[in-house]
Each structure stands twice: as C-alpha cells, then as structure tokens.
Design a protein that fits this description.
Blueprint lengths: L46 E3 L2 E6 L2 E6 L3 E3 L2 E4 L5 E4 L3 E8 H21 L7 H17 L6 E7 L5
Antiparallel strand pairs: 1-4, 1-7, 2-3, 4-5, 6-7, 7-8
Subcellular location: Nucleus
Pfam family, one: Proteasome
Protein name: Proteasome subunit beta
Length: 160
C-alpha cells in the first residue's frame, strides 16, 4: 500500500523505487555476512536493576529491593518490580538485566502452572525453585547465551 498522498491516483512503476534512485533489480547489495541472519543475543545488559537484599531471621526471611531500573546511567523505569512470588512458598529477587528477569518470571510462572496441572498434591518450594534456576542459568551459560542476572531465592516451606 502506498502511504504517500502525493502518489495517490498516479500510475505506478514497480521497476524503480519511489525515490527513483536505483532500478529495483540493480540496487547495490551489502556484503553477505554469515552471521547476519542468525539470532541476535544480548552481549551486555541494557536495562538493569541493582542489588537485592535477603535476610534470614528466627521466624522467617525478608527480601528487599528498590523499584528502579536504569538504562545506562539514566534512571529510566521507576516502577520495575524486582521481587516476584513463585508459587505459595517462594519469592525471587533479581539484579542485572530486567529483560532476562522477565524471561525468568515467565518461565517460572509456566513451571508453576504445569506443576499445578499435575494435581498430584506436590508443590514446588524454595529448594526446587533454586535447583531449577541453577539448571536454567547453567544451561544458558553453556550455550553462550547467558542470562545476565544475579538472583536471590527465598522462601519458607515445611519449617525450613
């Protein structure tokens, strides 16, 4: 569809581009790059969160984090939640790349849904979530596509 009102109602010539610079069949082509069509991966964190604090005390645990996510040195997002409940017994907190943290949140939410669908009476606690996250982080690092996060897992289940 032609979005330029000055061209409406005029006959088209598809052999040349709208600006008349090159015939379409003779347009200069960039050099072929073997990696140009591959999937692009994050080489360094872009939107980042800072530290998360976890404290264990006599009657439980406490996690704390701010809501700021920075774009470089710019305080860009001031409402980013960096603590996420997972199931009934666990909370995770993350520093590092917020896009990767959202990816982890999505996968953990799907994991909890799959576990609930089993209806076998088993629920995932902090130990299982920690083991799952450590396997996911190691697998991604081994594929040279790391998740750029530092995570803290806290929870309380069965008195532990």
């Amino acid at each position: 569809m032609d979005h330029f009102p000055t061209n409406w109602g005029r006959p088209r010539n598809d052999a040349v581009d709208p600006y008349g610079t090159y015939p379409l069949h003779a347009r200069p082509q960039p050099k072929h790059d073997a990696f140009a069509e591959g999937v692009q991966r994050t080489q360094q964190p872009i939107v980042t969160g800072t530290s998360v604090l976890g404290i264990r005390y006599k009657d439980g645990i406490m996690l704390a984090a701010d809501n700021l996510a920075s774009y470089g040195s710019l305080a860009r997002f001031k409402d980013m939640k960096r603590l996420h409940p997972v199931g009934n017994y666990t909370v995770i907190g993350a520093g590092g790349d917020m896009g990767d943290f959202q990816y982890i949140q999505h996968h953990l939410d799907n994991l909890i849904i799959e576990e609930d669908d089993e209806e076998d009476g088993h629920t995932l606690g902090p130990r299982e979530i920690y083991e799952y996250l450590s396997r996911v982080m190691y697998a991604r690092r081994s594929k040279i596509n790391p998740l750029w996060n530092s995570m803290i897992v806290g929870g309380y289940k069965d008195g532990q």
